[in-house]
């Protein structure tokens, strides 16, 4: 992948072209990429909002539905940001049309950010849709809206990078699905989406704090509700650190052309 600078007026054309293509790709199959995860999240909201939401409580001052909804919103953001980057890049490698892209004057940075921004857009669209549906079940106080938006952006950015990394390391569709089925989903469910980590006995509470998704979920929940197992600043700092590490990892792989030419 060329890192040479194109003429100033033309240097970002490959980036915008790739970004438009990636956005168009997931919009063209929106029933699969947007509607399906929204329906899945709606079923969760029905179960926890209309049935259990007012009958149990795990955080004083909030219903169980209010506790769960922030995690469901972020779960949609995370899953779809990862799915978009990983599936798109892996399929491009698998069918070989990634080679057509590599001969264009696009830089490694532009390559990463085109895939990243398209994936973030898909993840955030699903997250906003889930939040919109949740309004019919339970209100959220939005204590720190700027912090909530920042955490959602960080989560989508972070998992877009992880999707790029997974797409480069996976050699088969089964290997790619393992990242989601055996890593992301267990970390989400064990990261405090459906229960507060503080109610766990030792040593499970301490072990749960090693889960990187715990910081994303708790930071987002704290920004929305003003309550959480850790302070917002701690969660935000951990999320920024993880995002920097994954971006550096993805940039290193793309810069080397790792598995892009074979």
Automatic annotation (TrEMBL):
Intracellular or extracellular location(s): Cell membrane; Membrane
Classification via Pfam families: ABC2_membrane (PF01061)
Segments crossing the lipid bilayer: 34-52, 64-82, 94-117, 124-143, 149-170, 182-204, 230-254
UniProt-recorded Gene Ontology molecular function terms: ABC-type transporter activity
Membrane topology classification: Multi-pass membrane protein
Domain ABC transmembrane type-2: from-to ranges: 28-257
Highest taxon of source: Bacteria
Keywords of the record: Cell membrane, Membrane, Transmembrane, Transmembrane helix, Transport
A Gene Ontology cellular-component term: ATP-binding cassette (ABC) transporter complex
Chief location of this protein within or outside the cell: membrane
Family: Belongs to the ABC-2 integral membrane protein family.
NCBIfam families linked to this entry: PRK15066.1
Protein name, entry field: Transport permease protein
Organism, scientific name: Geoalkalibacter subterraneus
Lineage of source species: Bacteria, Pseudomonadati, Thermodesulfobacteriota, Desulfuromonadia, Desulfuromonadales
């Amino acid at each position: 992948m060329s890192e040479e600078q194109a003429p100033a007026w033309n240097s970002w054309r490959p980036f915008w072209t790739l970004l438009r293509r990636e956005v168009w790709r997931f919009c063209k199959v929106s029933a699969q990429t947007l509607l399906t995860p929204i329906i899945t999240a709606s079923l969760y909201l029905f179960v926890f909002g209309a049935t259990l939401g007012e009958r149990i409580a795990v955080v004083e001052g909030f219903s169980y539905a209010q506790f769960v909804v922030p995690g469901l919103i972020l779960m949609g953001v995370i899953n779809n940001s990862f799915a978009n980057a990983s599936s798109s890049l892996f399929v491009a490698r698998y069918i070989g049309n990634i080679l057509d892209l590599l001969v264009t004057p696009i830089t490694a940075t532009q390559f990463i950010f085109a895939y990243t921004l398209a994936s973030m857009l898909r993840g955030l669209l699903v997250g906003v849709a889930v939040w919109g549906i949740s309004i019919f079940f339970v209100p959220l106080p939005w204590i720190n809206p700027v912090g909530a938006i920042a955490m959602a952006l960080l989560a989508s950015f972070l998992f877009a990078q992880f999707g790029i990394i997974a797409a480069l390391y996976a050699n088969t569709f089964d290997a790619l699905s393992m990242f989601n089925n055996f890593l992301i989903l267990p970390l989400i469910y064990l990261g405090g989406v459906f229960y507060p980590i503080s109610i766990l006995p030792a040593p499970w509470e301490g072990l749960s704090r090693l889960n990187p998704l715990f910081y994303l979920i708790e930071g987002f929940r704290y920004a929305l509700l003003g309550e959480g197992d850790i302070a917002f600043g701690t969660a935000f700092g951990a999320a920024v650190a993880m995002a920097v590490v994954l971006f550096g990892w993805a940039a290193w792989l793309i810069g080397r052309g790792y598995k892009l030419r074979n």
